[in-house]
Amino acid sequence: MTPEAEQFLRRAIALAAASREAGDAPFGSLLVGPDGDVLAEDHNTTLSEGNISYHPELKLAVWAAQHLTPEQAAGTTMYTSCQPCPMCTGALARSGLGRVVYALSGEQLNGLKSTGDFPAVPMEGPALYDEARVPVEGYYS
What we know:
By secondary structure, the chain is an alpha+beta fold. It contains 6 helices and 4 strands, in the order H-E-E-H-H-E-H-E-H-H. Helix 2 packs parallel to helix 4. Residues 3-136 form the CMP/dCMP-type deaminase domain. InterPro entries: CMP_dCMP_dom, Cytidine_deaminase-like.
């Protein structure tokens, strides 16, 4: 880890601390361009804005998709206070960001929680393939 990367991770941790002080969950992230400039930063606002999807990693992935070309996004690095959750990981993949560097792992985070991770939601499927494929077929060609 370079001293510059450590500095960016410390900023993500500071954003997480500010988020907690503001009454939200303690997570923060920043997006850095290939030249080392901070392009955007954010913190968790799931409680203050009443939206369970307002994780900083997801918000920055959306920002990148709206403001960067695919080539620019591929050159970025996200520094984040904690390993992105599965929801955010999916958004990061779709946004085309270059890489993610995190401070706490998901396992380490769960070790710090008294309640552990969220319970899994039961899912069933696949079902109705012939019908469900119709609107999708050819879209990704």
